[in-house]
Design goal:
Helix content is about 40%, strand content about 10%. The radius of gyration is 26 Å and the shape is globular. The protein has a 7-stranded mixed beta sheet, with helices on both faces. A 5-stranded parallel beta sheet has the order 2-1-3-4-5. Strands 10-11 form a two-stranded antiparallel sheet. A hairpin with a 2-residue loop joins strand 6 and strand 7. The chain is built from 23 helices and 14 strands. By secondary structure, the chain is an alpha/beta fold.
Length: about 625
């Protein structure tokens, strides 16, 4: 189970999932008898990555309901046991407490000959304010257990973890709410308890320094008794999203990146129009807590347990077609072996391989269909025109004047998110816009899309994505870090710039430099990026030694392991670039394996949406474990 979490490297992410499952089961076992789980709707997808329905069923969870105001339909059907424990699993959000109170009151009003116990577990941390509100609503006395389920980081794959906290960037950079950074620090302390103290910590940015300080303080409070494991990581980098506002804005050009751009990957699952896929019967193992039977989408798990997806995910999309063709020819050749099987033994060997062959055939059909769906998007004039203007901006062409392309998009009332994404890209690559250019864009947007978007424009300015032109730093960054590469081999790449067909993600160039000559070699450009750069040595507990010196013989022993934590979000393109670097064995500074963690897996659209103000009163976005932002058109 969850085989995709153990990639065979030094860090086994499956251990993290096992601990999260164990903690969840501990919560369930504190609640006796037959159970009804009442879900905060934003937690069903994330918790589905930890525990499948069958596991909950084994632990006496007989009913599940979304959290809504009103009475819970707990009446037992024929042959069903009466519910003894009602468990609320919710985020620590004040607005949810009213729904919980209404649920409890209305359920109790109906009465029952069976005694019911109510329990509440906050994810990821108990909230004093929420408890006080429940007391004010006069339902706290009904609660037998008030606890917390400490699920800060979700295991997405063997080298990837995410908090799926979609408003973390907005909270930290606009609202001065650093709760998520506290969750990050708690998660990192748990990781160090499991995988050993990380000897070297690097960081860049305000939030990175904040997390580092919290870790230092927490370790002083806890002491060394919790950290007895030999270090699995050699180093950790904490990197603020604000240090690289550019990378999320252009269109990602990897297979997984384009899927996320157009088909909304959430909680490791992609949603696709079903027409392209042959009907198939899903096994119970494929179903998870996020399955919606009424959905109009085909839901497909996207992780490295799918062997073909593991090969395709990080490739430039132009390399996907040849790879699918190669796979089809390989399978065809394997099927031809059946004709050459003349003996019983040969036939037995072929039959023994048949289940795996059929699985590979199914995966090939699935990804051929997905690739066709993506190609329908990338073959349009709209896609190519947008890509061209993005490339021009990143090359510094016509960034100081109003773009006629953006002007036309506004005139046609195209997606506001698309318009804002391009304007922000122009602003970031030009170190801000001339006053008359920025004022023109603002005026056109407000007149075309509505004056309620003035708050959104203000948010983008406060985040640094829109601003008046200041000192020119980006040309120096572009040249010194070689961010724009002229010749890119998309089929057999030699550089990370393949993920955007010519642009190397600034964040990953910083990581690449840090793991190579070090940031001291680029001190003159580091000053153009916001926030303090720092380096900390963490003392190992008594009796715990660093990893043995690198050996000559064993390649795995020679590989350094670095945990990279993106504070404010990371794109699939950046993840692909880091995986590319992990595969480079000829590095002059030795190979490095990267484990990636982030507050949220983002793309340019949902990142911009997270900064938008919803014009409809009362529809505030949630601040953690938000699977999907509502699109404002």
């Amino acid at each position: 189970m969850a085989s995709h979490l153990n990639g065979g490297g030094r860090v086994n992410i499956a251990l993290w999932r096992n601990k999260a499952r164990s903690d969840l089961l501990k919560c369930l076992r504190e609640c006796p008898g037959s159970k009804a789980l009442v879900w905060d709707s934003q937690l069903t997808g994330p918790v589905g990555l930890i525990a499948e329905y069958s596991l909950l069923k084994e632990n006496e969870v007989d009913r599940m309901f979304p959290l809504n105001p009103g009475r819970l339909p707990l009446a037992a059907g024929p042959g069903a046991s009466a519910i003894q424990s009602v468990i609320f699993l919710v985020r620590p959000k004040l607005e949810l407490m009213s729904d919980i109170a209404d649920c409890i009151r209305k359920t109790e009003e109906v009465g029952s000959r069976f005694q019911k116990d109510y329990h509440i577990y906050f994810v990821p941390m108990k909230s004093t304010l929420c408890c006080q509100k429940l007391k004010n609503l006069q339902v706290y006395g009904f609660l037998k257990n008030v606890g917390e389920y400490c699920l800060e980081l979700l295991p997405m794959d063997s080298d990837l973890l995410s908090m799926e906290s979609s408003l973390s960037f907005k909270e930290c950079n606009l609202l001065n709410d650093f709760t998520t950074m506290h969750y990050v620090a708690r998660a990192l302390m748990k990781m160090q308890a499991m995988y050993g103290i990380i000897p070297k910590v690097y960081g860049k940015g305000k939030c990175a320094k904040m997390v580092s300080d919290m870790i230092t303080r927490m370790r002083l409070e806890i002491g060394d008794k919790e950290f007895k494991s030999e270090p699995c990581f050699d180093s950790m980098l904490l990197l603020d999203r604000s240090c690289d506002l550019l990378t999320p804005l252009p269109t990602q050009l990897t297979y997984e990146g384009l899927m996320d751009e157009y088909f909304d990957i959430q909680n490791g699952t992609g949603k696709f129009p079903p027409e392209k896929f042959a009907k198939s019967n899903e096994s119970d193992q494929q179903k998870d807590l996020s399955t919606d039977k009424k959905s109009d989408f085909k839901k497909i798990p996207l992780n490295s347990s799918d062997e073909l997806f593991a090969v395709l995910r990080d490739k430039n999309f132009n390399a996907v077609g040849p790879e699918l063709s190669k796979k089809a020819k390989t399978l065809s050749a394997i099927y031809d072996e059946r004709k050459d099987a003349k003996t019983v033994r040969a036939m037995k060997q072929f039959v023994s391989k048949l289940p795996h062959i059929q699985l590979e055939k199914s995966q090939l059909a699935t990804h051929t269909s997905i690739a066709e769906l993506v190609k329908e998007k990338t073959d349009t004039d709209s896609f190519m025109d947008s890509l061209q203007i993005q490339q021009e901006f990143m090359n510094g062409l016509d960034t100081d004047k109003v773009s006629s392309y953006i002007e036309d998009l506004i005139a046609k009332k195209e997606s506001l998110v698309k318009v804002l994404r391009l304007i922000c890209l122009q602003s970031v690559t030009n170190d801000g816009l001339k006053p008359k250019v920025l004022d023109f864009y603002k005026r056109e947007i407000l007149q075309t899309y509505g004056f309620e978007h003035i708050l959104t424009l203000s948010n983008l300015e406060r985040a640094g994505l829109l601003k008046f032109q200041g000192p020119r730093g980006f040309p120096t960054l572009r040249k010194t870090l070689n961010l724009v590469v002229g010749e890119v081999n998309e089929l057999n790449p030699l550089d990370i710039s393949y993920v955007f067909s010519g642009y190397a993600p600034l964040s990953v160039r910083l990581i690449q430099t840090l793991m190579g000559p070090g940031w001291r070699s680029i001190q003159e450009v580091m000053r153009f990026l916001p926030g303090q750069a720092f380096e900390i040595d963490q003392k190992l507990p008594p009796g715990v030694e660093k990893r043995k010196p690198l050996s000559q013989g064993n390649q795995e022993d020679n590989t350094r392991v670095c945990l990279v934590f993106f504070l404010g979000g990371a794109t699939f393109a950046e993840i692909a670039a880091l995986r590319f670097l992990s595969q480079q064995e000829n590095s002059s500074h030795g190979p490095t394996e990267y484990i990636i963690a982030t507050t949220k897996l983002i793309n340019g659209s949902n990142w911009i949406e997270s900064l938008m103000e919803n014009p409809v009163p009362g529809e505030e976005e949630s601040t953690s474990f938000r699977p999907q932002q509502s699109r404002l058109r």
